[in-house]
Amino acid sequence: MYTVIGKQLTRCYRVLWALEELGQEYDLNPALPQSPDVLALNPSGKVPILVEDGEAITDSTAIITYLADKHGQLTAPAGTLARAKQDAVTHMLLDELDAVLWTAARHSFILPEDKRVPEVKDSLKWEFARSLNRLEARMQGPYLMGEDFTIADIICTHCLNWAYSAKFPLENKALLEYSKRMRSRPAFQKVAASVK
Questions:
Q1: Residues 103, 64 share a domain
Q2: Residue 194 domain-assigned?
Q3: Which are the contacts of 24, defined by CB distance < 8 A and separation ≥ 6?
Q4: Which of 53, 74, 88, 105 is least surrounded, with the fewest CB atoms within 10 Å of its CB?
Q5: Would you tell me how many other CB atoms lie within 10 Å of the CB of residue 78?
Q6: Which residue ranges does UniProt annotate as crossing the membrane (predicted)?
Q7: Given a cut of 80, is residue 196 above it in pLDDT?
Q8: Are 85 and 160 in the same domain?
Q9: Average pLDDT over residues 148-170
Q10: What is the CA radius of gyration of the chain?
Q11: Which value, to the nearest 10 degrees, does the dihedral of the CA atoms of residues 160, 162, 164, 168 take?
Q12: pLDDT in tens, 113-129
């Protein structure tokens, strides 16, 4: 059985959602970033952490990629063109959505106050909106990769939810509809119901 360390309202949500989609059992330790439980397994103090057979894996994308590959679901097979295209979309999401949201968070509440530059958030919102338009142009069907739900959809939906809570404008109608469909998935709903 897997153990997931981290609170649901962090990138840990991605891991829990993937595990639910895969039908895998897990225990959740809702430890906070920088807590002793987290620092014991990840010197950066970041969550999520997946523990399997006493081994810790960090970084939400690395974890869900591992889980998808191991269980043969939520991903195109490694070494295929379909996987290369999926990886390209995944990296675009991380570079152009997740990184922008993380930078905004850092300048809102993570960095020490004297290191924050709140004025940067306007340019980040502009950049985020531009990236959403490019993402829409890449969509190939009901899911990012066409007819199959993949880990890219988990990352994208998490970013769209994060953007909404961070008050980033979400005006792209196609992606709003997409996000609504993703959030209606039973596995997503099960994790949402567990948030305390």
A1: no
A2: no
A3: 2, 67, 71
A4: 53
A5: 11
A6: none
A7: no
A8: yes
A9: 95
A10: 17
A11: -90
A12: 999 999 999 999 999 99
On whether both 36 and 92 belong to a single domain, the answer is: no
Q: Give start and end residues of each alpha helix (H) in the chain.
A: 12-22, 36-39, 60-71, 81-93, 99-105, 120-138, 151-165, 173-183, 186-194
What residue type is 174 in one-letter code?
A
Write out the two tokens for 135: 């993402």
Instruction: Fill in the DSSP letter of residue 146.
Output: B
**Residues near 181 by beta carbon (within 8 Å), at least 6 away in sequence:** 142
Domain span at residue 181?
81-185
Q: How many domains does the chain have?
A: 2
pLDDT for 169 beyond 90 = no
Q: Evaluate the CA torsion angle 184, 185, 187, 188 in order and state its sign.
A: negative
Q: What size, in residues, is the chain? A: 196
Q: Which residue has the higher pLDDT, 169 or 131?
A: 131
Shared domain for 69 and 87, answered yes or no, is no
User: Which DSSP string do the residues of 43-69 spell out, in sequence order?
Assistant: TT--S-EEEETTEEEESHHHHHHHHHH
Same domain, 108 and 126: yes
Residues 91 and 170 placed together within one structural domain of the fold = yes
